[in-house]
Request: fold
Amino acid sequence: MRRYSFTPMLGWSFSRYDKFSQCKRLYYYEYYGKYDKEFPPGKITLLKSLTSIPLEIGNLVHKTISVLLYRLRKNTAPIDVANVLNYSYRLVDEAIKMKTFQEVYYHKLEAISADEIKGRVENCLRSFFASEWYKWLIEDAIIQRAGWVIEPEDYGELRIDGRKAYCRVDFLSPAANGSFYVFDWKTGKVGIERDTQQMKGYALYAMSLFNATTEQVKPVVVYLGDHYEELSHSFTEGDLAELATQVAVETEEMYQYCENIEENIPKAKTLFSQEEGNLCPYCNYRELCGK
Reply:
């Protein structure tokens, strides 16, 4: 896999710009908390580390599937579904023991129900095992396992028209027919417009990594939540050019809040406005805003 030398300059990603567009103060605490002079660094670090029940369900499902994929890449022996589910239960217990949940920290719940989370994680994993893509994985894609990309450690760093960007795929597999399948596992609600845009980034990542054409890349969103669904894409060069334009515009917007763009040093916190909206009850940092 290609590597890029480290630079402190910010890199565009869907998640970064999403926070930026929702609330500038949230964005500041998430990415520039170490520069804050109003609150102790430990407080901001604690709030940044808060998880939530929906977020943790997604984390646990992704973790379990990635471990399963690493195991298959190393050893093609049949997967024991019961063992995988038991592993996920242990992850749930560990998460509840080691992490602080937003729902408890902000007194919405007295405690987190391990059984509830285990049940929801299990439902997602059973949907995964029952899918045609899992059958394809263990029967066809496994032949190409040497080329698998599983949640890359570089967070999917790439360059989009020369600009740093991050598009971290959940799973990418070459196929015998010359295609490259890119998967994104979702445990939350279906968001066709949002997820379509995200998959454009994943397509660009696959093209960059394997020097592939748009026709060769096959992005798929797999929804593993309450109702199993799939969203497949076939992008044109025009679609990806639109994303490149979007990245350029959104990167420049974020640059406007940097005192030093090259070093990614922010301007004063007072310039990062607090937004009043539906996000506030779910924001990790609402304590700092007096919410």
